[in-house]
Design goal:
Elements: H1 2-9, E1 15-19, H2 22-26, H3 31-44, H4 54-65, E2 70-74, H5 80-87, E3 98-101, H6 105-110, H7 124-136, H8 146-156
Parallel strand pairs: 1-2, 2-3
Protein name: Resistance protein
InterPro entries: Disease_R_plants, NB-ARC, P-loop_NTPase
Domain NB-ARC: 29-139
Length: 157
């Protein structure tokens, strides 16, 4: 859903960045620094940006993005440190910037996020169709995969 939202509105902003797998990348050595570097590079269109520390990245984000109206999606955030390093305070960004964060509600409330949208679960038929599009590139399960597909959607809810 976050990717679909991003794709449908990104052209309304001066710059846009979808940071995928924040949790996984930030767990790696220098992961937060790499995420900051990616964020800056994508939003500024400058591929030679080097960030040497999280603190330097925070300063660069504040300085370089403060005047840009940006769309930022932070996918799979699970620690407050990630949010503080990538989207610390509202005054880091220009008026009109939108930051979409996907993950647990407790993390968003701890970071004082203004608006929280709780996703509704898909119905079983909707879940099955989504699963099948990703697994089989069709709307229904392949023959002999009906039971396994139904088990997968019930497990994942």
């Amino acid at each position: 859903l976050a990717k679909a939202l991003y794709n449908s509105i990104c052209d309304r902003f001066e710059c846009a960045c979808f940071l995928l797998n924040v949790r996984k990348i930030s767990d790696q050595e220098e992961g937060l620094v790499r995420l900051q570097q990616t964020l800056l590079s994508k939003l500024l269109g400058e591929w030679e940006i080097k960030v040497r520390s999280v603190e330097e990245g925070i300063s660069m984000i504040k300085e370089k993005l403060g005047k840009k109206r940006a769309l930022i999606v932070l996918d799979d955030v699970d620690k407050i440190e990630q949010l503080k390093a990538l989207a610390g305070e509202c005054d880091w960004f220009s008026y009109g910037t939108r930051i979409v964060i996907t993950r647990d509600k407790y993390l968003l409330t701890a970071h004082k996020v203004e608006k929280i949208y709780k996703m509704k679960l898909l119905s079983d038929p909707e879940s099955l169709e989504l699963f099948c599009w990703n697994a089989f590139k069709m709307t229904r399960p392949k023959a002999n995969y009906e039971d396994l597909s139904n088990q997968a959607i019930h497990y994942a809810q």
